[in-house]
Every structure is written in C-alpha cells, then in structure tokens.
Amino acid sequence: MSYQIELRHIKYFLAVAKDLHFRKAAERLFISQPGLSRQIKQMELDLGIVLFERHNRKVVLTKAGEYLKEELTLSLKSLEHAFSHAKLLHDGKKGDLKFGYVGSAMQEIIPSLLIEFKKEHPNILFGLKEMDNHKQIEGLLSYDIDLGFVRLDRVPKELEIKPILKECFCLVLPHNHVLNKENFKGLHQLKEASFILFDPKYSATYFEKVMQIFDASGFSPMVSHNTIHASSIYKLVENHFGVSIVPKSLTDPNNKKLKFIELSKIKQRTTLSIVWNKSNRNPILSHVFDIISELSDSL
C-alpha cells in the first residue's frame, strides 16, 4: 500500500492535533485556514482514515488521530535528531549528548564525567539542563534528552535505570546553630524546629525516604517551606528560616554560613541513578556508560 504523505502533511496534522483548532494552527503555520483544511482532508483521503471529528465549535481527535499524534511526534523528533546529527558531522563534530539532572549530580558526578569523556571524545557537544525527576522522565520519553540523573526507584517500562551512587543524608544547619558534630545525638533534638525540604514533586520516592527518617526519630516534622532547588534551601537555612536534610553529595563545605552533620548512623540512604530510553539511537550514548561505571566505583 502506497501513501502520498509528505513531511509537510505530518507537520500540518501535528499542529492541528496540538491546537485542536484549524484557525490557530493555520496562523502558527503561516498558511491560510482553507489551505490547511484541504491538506488535512487530503491526508485523510490518502490514508483512508478519519483523523478529526469536526463539530461547529470544536475539533476532536479520533482514536486513530490520537494514535498518529503520539507516534508521529516521536518519529518527527527522531528525524530532527538525525538531521541535527548529520549537521554536526558535517561541521566536524562527532555528535551531541543532552543531559537532564537533579542538582546533586552536578556537584561531582557530571563534572567528572565531562572531564573524562572530553579526554577521549573532544569533538562531542554537551547540553546540560537541571530538571526535576518528573521532567526528566518526560524528556527521555520524548527524546528531548538522552540521559537523566534521577532519584527514583522505578521508571516507565520504555526506560532503563541503573543506580550509580548510594549515599547518606546530611543535616543542614545555620553556622551558629547550637548543635554541632560533637553534641548531636539524634534528629529528635530538632523536633521543635522548622524544616525546609525538597518538594514531594521533586521526587515522591525521595520525599518518602526523608519522611522515614522522621518516623524512625519519633516525630513528624514542622515543614515551613518546600522547594525543588538546593540553593533555595541553603539561602533559607542561612537566614534562620529553618533547618534541612539533603543528600551528602549536595553538601557545600565552602559555604561558611552553613554547617553539615552527616547522618551516618541512620539506615536510610538515597540513591542517585542514571536513566535512559531503551530505544534511543544516539551513537554517543553507549560510550558514556563505561566512564560512569568507573566514576561510580571510585566514589
């Protein structure tokens, strides 16, 4: 069976599928609304299927349309990546790799990875973007990023996950707080304190692990602030709005306004993992795993 479908038809379809409005889609595509309607109708005729249910006041995707929207979005993304990779090769580059990461991965893991990788692959371009765990999963599924650094226990079946660093938690206090490494006996000493914690949206798994620490200490924390950024946590602690608990890799020994107490005697640990899409065909991705394994062994 032969279909006379061109790339422009796919882009037209995806624009209407996104807006569910022919006029708005036509404006974004810089073509006339009647012209767009004719192109979509021709696409439906060529495929022999109905993509949209057209009503007086709204447009709705059919089941076939919903399926094609999802599949063609991924296919178009893959095609764009192929063109981009070809352009990099033309410009003398060997490719690119896009990372998503939670803040703690930037403290040591990612800088070390980039340094080691650049030694053997100097012509690789890297894209780095700090993202919460959920956004990274979305980015991996849509091929917007190639590799994620997350604090999750489970990921969708389309993805692969591998733990690379299991670490302790640390208590974060203002530099002049009465508690220190010598007189700290347990978290119960802070049951009257306000806590500044990572938002559950940052990672439900991570948040639950932190709550287990409080459960084991015999009290429920008074949480005054939630945030997804370590810098916000540190600024709030510095200004005596509360105290916090963070992964050890996120501690900043050079910050003289804070002090950190490692919670090494509690059983709870947090795990940093790498995650990637099993179907990702980026040829650079496979070269990264050996270096990450070596780095995680040395940490």
UniProtKB/TrEMBL annotation:
Keywords from the UniProt entry: DNA-binding, Transcription, Transcription regulation
Record carries keyword Coiled coil: no
Upper classification of the organism: Bacteria, Pseudomonadati, Bacteroidota, Flavobacteriia, Flavobacteriales
Glycosyltransferase listed as a keyword: no
HTH lysR-type domain location: 5-62
SUPFAM superfamilies: Periplasmic binding protein-like II, Winged helix' DNA-binding domain
InterPro entries, per the entry: LysR_HTH_N, LysR_subst-bd, WH-like_DNA-bd_sf, WH_DNA-bd_sf
Gene3D superfamilies: Periplasmic binding protein-like II, Winged helix-like DNA-binding domain superfamily/Winged helix DNA-binding domain
Protein name: LysR family transcriptional regulator
PROSITE patterns the record matches: HTH_LYSR
Similarity section: Belongs to the LysR transcriptional regulatory family.
